[in-house]
C-alpha cells in the first residue's frame, strides 16, 4: 500500500495499491482478442429509468473476457502475465494452454509468470490448480467455487476472498464462506485452490470525491434529507427522526443495523449449515 502525503485536504487520507510491484505490466494493453466493449448503464434500465441510484459517468473501461467455466480439462497451461482488470477487484492472469489457446483467468495470490496450472480431476492440490471439491482435503482454501457442476464459478471471486473446506459429507462438501457462513455445496462442483489476489484491496481509502467520480460513483443523499415521497426516512419539520423502528431502504426493505434481510423462504436455505456471524466477527470494516 502507498499512502499519500497530506499535501491537500483531499490527499490527506488517500491510499493506493502499488501495482508496479504486483503486476507484470501496468500499461493498459490487454490481449485484444479477449476484450470487448461494454456500455455503461448509469444505473438505468431498458426504459431509461434509474433503478440503481448514485451511479454514472466514470472513466471508460475495456471489458476482459474472463474464463469462469474452465472447460479445458487435462490441458496444462502456463501463466504469461498478471494484469489489472477495471471490472473486478482481483487481478487476472493471461494463461497459454499447451494447445496454443490463450485465456484470461482470475489470478490467485502467489501466482507468478511461468507458473504451470491445470484443470483436472487428478490435479495436485496446488495454488491455481482446479479440481472437484471431493478431491480437496479439509482445511484447504479455495476460490472460484461452482454452485452447480459445469455452470461456472460463482462463489469467492472478490479480491482477497476464499472459502475454506471444513468437511466432506457424502454428496456434499461443507465450506466456510468469506461471510463466516457454513454451507453445503455439491462435491461434484469444481473449485480452484488458493485465495483471490489483491488482498490489500479492502484497505484502500479513496480519499477524495473526485477519485470516486472517476470510478463511476456519484454522491449519495441521506434518506433523512429527502422528502417523504422519495424515501421512508424523509419528510418532517426540521431534523426529524426516521419514524420507524427499523432502518429501511428507498423501497421499504430492512437494511443495516444488524437486521436480518434474507428471505425465510429462499430456495437455498436448505444448504446453510450455520448462519453468518454479524458485525466484527465477519471481518468487515467496523
Topology:
Elements lengths: L1 E2 L11 E2 L2 H4 L12 E2 L26 E2 L12 E7 L8 E6 L4 E5 L9 E2 L12 E3 L8 E3 L1 E2 L6 E3 L7 E7 L2 E5 L5 E5 L3 E4 L15 H6 L57 E3 L12
Antiparallel strand pairs: 1-2, 3-4, 5-6, 5-8, 6-7, 9-16, 10-13, 10-16, 11-12, 13-14, 14-15, 15-17
* Global mean pLDDT: 92
* Name given to the CATH architecture of the domain at 18-40 and 60-201: Roll
Q: What's the CATH topology name of the domain at 18-40 and 60-201?
A: SH3 type barrels
| CATH level-1 class of the domain at 18-40 and 60-201 | Mainly Beta
What portion of residues belong to β-strands?
15-25%
Gyration radius (Cα, Å) is 22 Å
Question: What is the number of beta strands?
Answer: 17
Count, helices: 2
Question: Going across the major beta sheet, what is the strand order?
Answer: 9-16-10-13-14-15-17
Low-confidence stretches: none
Distance between the termini: 20 Å
The assigned structural class equals: mainly beta
Q: Biggest β-sheet, characterized? A: 7 strands, antiparallel
